[in-house]
Each structure stands twice: as structure tokens, then as C-alpha cells.
Design goal:
Blueprint: H1 10-27, H2 37-48, H3 62-76, H4 90-93, H5 98-112, H6 116-119
């Protein structure tokens, strides 16, 4: 299973993203994170509808797919809890919406790190 753009569709992507957020924030020592689940689903639906590539989602590169995901995720900001304390360097923590940018970037890296057979086209 891929974290995003799984062949199972939006529902599988939503499970992957929410599980990733949970594991990632816990690895930072953050136990309670407020996430707008409806916004996560909206982001993931938006990724597949009207994909910004002349040949559509299926024929686009993984880099285009990940750029699309990061853009949607950061813009919609589904993670409402800022990361505080010493979990990240201060310049990052001082940046508004840092939590969504950091998580989206890490999801993109984890997606690219998947075995080639799982990454897609």
C-alpha cells in the first residue's frame, strides 16, 4: 500500500495519510494532534479530480503527483496543532503552518522511498 495515490482510491489514501500523521507525530513525542479529517479527505479527493497534467493523473510522473499533494495539503492545512517545544529547529517552528509543510514533505519522501513497484507511473 502506498501512502498516497494508492490504487484503492481516496479511502485507502485517507487511511494511509492519517496513519502516517499519527506515527510521525508520535515519533516526535507529540501525543495529541488535532486533525480535520474532512479536510484530509477533501485534499485527497482534490488530488484526483482535475489533475493538472495534460495526460491526467495516471500518466503523470511521481514528482508531479507529489508536488500536487504537497501544494494541496499545505494550502488546506488539515493539521491544526502546531509542533511546539524542541521537536524541530526554531526557525521551522516560527513559520506559520509549519506542521502541514513538514508532514506533507515527509509523506512525499516516504512515498518516493517505497519500492519502485509501489510508486506507480
Amino acid at each position: 500500500m502506498r501512502i498516497i495515490y494508492d490504487d484503492g482510491g481516496v479511502e485507502v489514501d485517507e487511511i494511509g495519510v492519517l496513519a502516517y500523521i499519527n506515527e510521525f507525530t508520535r515519533s516526535l513525542g507529540i501525543e495529541r494532534v488535532i486533525i480535520d479529517d474532512d479536510m484530509v479527505k477533501s485534499v485527497l479527493q482534490g488530488l484526483r479530480a482535475d489533475f493538472p497534467h495534460k495526460d491526467g493523473l495516471v500518466r503523470s510522473s511521481i514528482f508531479k503527483k507529489l508536488a500536487n499533494f504537497i501544494t494541496y495539503f499545505v494550502a488546506q492545512a488539515p493539521i491544526k496543532t502546531s509542533f511546539a517545544g524542541s521537536v524541530l529547529p526554531l526557525p521551522i517552528l516560527d513559520t506559520p503552518n509549519h506542521q502541514n509543510a513538514v508532514v506533507a514533505f515527509h509523506i512525499a519522501i516516504a512515498t518516493v522511498s517505497a519500492p519502485i513497484s509501489q510508486v506507480g507511473h
